[in-house]
Amino acid sequence: MTETPTETARLLELRGIDKTFGTVQAVRGLTLSVPAGEFVTVVGPSGCGKSTLFNMVAGLDEPDPGGVLRFKGRSCHAHELLGRVSFMPQRDLLLPWRNVIDNAIIANEIEGADRKTARARALRMLPEFGLTGFEAQYPHQLSGGMRQRVALMRTFMFERELMLLDEPFGALDALTRSMMQRWLLDVWERHRRTVLFITHDVDEAIFLGDRVLVMTARPGSVKLARPVDLPRPRSAELVTSPEFIAIKREILAAIEEESMKSFMATGMRAA
Ligand SMILES: Nc1ncnc2c1ncn2[C@@H]1O[C@H](COP(=O)(O)OP(=O)(O)O)[C@@H](O)[C@H]1O
Ligand SMILES: [Mg+2]
Fold it and tell me: Model confidence over 137-162: pLDDT tens digits?
């Protein structure tokens, strides 16, 4: 079957995806579509299935039978995506016994790249990731922000069209976080990968994204897909602009509605 241009332009597509763990339905009827080059952010209450979504797209977990998963226009099983997307899991997972460079090249090493070549490439990338001079340091010698940059560098070094970032700035203080957001956009403008980015933080989701997906409470599905039609490059002042605040109000209303629903449901069960 020939693909129409709009179909091939979508890098990733999920339709009606379910995922159950034992008696817990983590995700239900999850449908989303990501065109190549887009920066999509995902917000939703804790436990709504965000990491589950990523684990499936990264090929680590298979969805329940019945849904459709497409990558580059082709229908596939989740496990076929293993190694085809770059994935930064929720915890940074730096190996404490490896220095910065050797942590940065892990994914390349696993896929059989020559160590020396990979190290040289990582060394060249250090300045862009604000790690110049830190190549020989170990994770415990780095600040939280630096560790996140090493983990991000590793994800960027594993060059795949689709990049999944699961709450990469979740553990950082507000100031470091906002610096990292601007830095990430800067790096992204140059590398232009397709990004799926999970966050708890609505401001972060709007500031970074071309589109924000708001998820429902568990079982997770997409409640709202809100385009962010704000110009790039984006500066820190953007978050106080009326346009930004209007988008934020809409997203918060969706989240509020969702929390009320789950609060009522919990309340009823308790009664
Ligand atoms: N491997 C697993 N085994 C059993 N339950 C799981 C597993 N992974 C996730 N869950 C459950 O699925 C739900 C969604 O989890 P998760 O995707 O981690 O949520 P989020 O990332 O949105 O906080 C939670 O109730 C969690 O306990
Ligand atoms: Mg999670």
Answer: 999 999 988 998 999 999 999 989 99
3-state class (DSSP) for residue 171: coil
Q: Which atom of ligand 1 is nearest to the CA of 53?
A: 17
| Protein residue with least CA distance to atom 20, ligand 1 | 47
Protein residue with least CA distance to atom 24, ligand 1: 47
Q: What is the pLDDT of residues 196-237, one digit of tens each?
A: 999 989 999 999 999 999 999 999 999 999 999 999 999 989
- Taken in order of first residue, the domains within the chain and their CATH numbers are 1-26+54-84 (no CATH), 85-198 (3.40.50.300), 214-221+237-271 (no CATH)
Which phi and psi angles does 11 have, rounded to 5°? Answer: -75, -40
Q: Which of 142, 138, 135 is nearest to 119 (CA)?
A: 135
Distance 67 CA to ligand 1 centre (A): 19
